[in-house]
Amino acid sequence: MAVDSSALKRAAAARALDFVQDGMKLGLGTGTTADAFLDVLAPRVRGGLTVTGAATSERTAIKARTLGIPVAPLEQLAPLDLTVDGADETDRALNLIKGGGGALLREKIVANSSKRMVVVCDGTKLVERLGRFPLPVEVTEFGHAVTARGLAECAGDLGYGHAPITLRLSEGAPYKTDGGNVIYDCAFGPIRNAATLAVTLKAITGVVEHGLFIGLATTLVVAHAPEDIEIVERKSHAEL
Ligand code: 5RP
Questions:
Q1: How far does residue 238's CA lie from ligand 1's centre (Å)?
Q2: Which positions are catalytic?
Q3: If you measure from the C-alpha of residue 34 to the centroid of ligand 1, how many angstroms do you get, rounded to a whole number?
Q4: Is the CB of 185 under 6 A from ligand 1?
Q5: For ligand 1, atom 8: residue with the closest CA
Q6: Of 5, 65, 53, 4, which is closest to residue 29 (Cα–Cα)?
Q7: Confidence (pLDDT) at 29
């Protein structure tokens, strides 16, 4: 029987509520799974739970406010107690690919400002090795085609061959992030050393941020089925 992915997203989001406590300052993620979290959080807020959110995108801020969840600028709230966000891919070490929804820069800033990051997803997002999902890389609009050549060179230098590097479009025009930048989706294939790739991409002039989230997520809530929710906690260095 086909699995209803929205039911799985709702199930993971509902389980993530267990990590929310009264008075918390929350990072609010972007995407359909993060939206599902807002949908389950809102009735709790109406019921008296006091939380304030820092949104990772304009659309999340609008949705949160519409649902009656208070939102304030990150600068006023940081450090945050907890961020709940989705992911495009995660491995069991809680390394992530994010940015499919185009919000990776704000998502990373918010995650970096959080004491804890809970990632909510359905089982299709859990992979042995990152890289099936093309890695989003946010670059400045100015000179973006030149920066893309740098991305291609990086792929060659690190042994990813001629990885397709594609400018993301929206209705025929370059997709623009909330920060006014553009995104290249980089189909590197299986990523052998995420840390090396992350450092190399970040060093390219014109690259604003990439969608590799390493060492940021602390907990993974993955719904394999509506009644089969797996919790994976990131191991400390001592346990590795
Ligand atoms: C947005 C993201 C999202 O978390 C990611 O794309 C997953 O989205 P969804 O929950 O809709 O599958 O990184 O930039």
A1: 31
A2: 107
A3: 8
A4: no
A5: 31
A6: 53
A7: 98
Q: How far is the CA of 100 from the centre of ligand 1 (A)?
A: 5
Residue nearest to atom 1 of ligand 1 (CA): 101
- In our burial notation (b when 16+ CB lie closer than 10 A, e otherwise), range 129-159 reads ebbebbbbbbbeeeebeebbebbbebbeebe
Q: Which atom of ligand 1 sits closest to the CA of residue 32?
A: 11
pLDDT beneath 70: ranges in the chain: 1-2, 237-240
CATH numbers and ranges of domains, the chain: 5-124+214-233 (3.40.50.1360), 135-204 (3.30.70.260)
pLDDT in tens, 89-123: 999 999 999 999 999 999 999 999 999 999 999 99
Backbone angles phi, psi at 2, to 5 degrees: -65, 140
Burial 170-208 (b: 16+ CB within 10 A, else e): eeeeeeebbeebbbbbbebbebeebeebbebbeebebbb
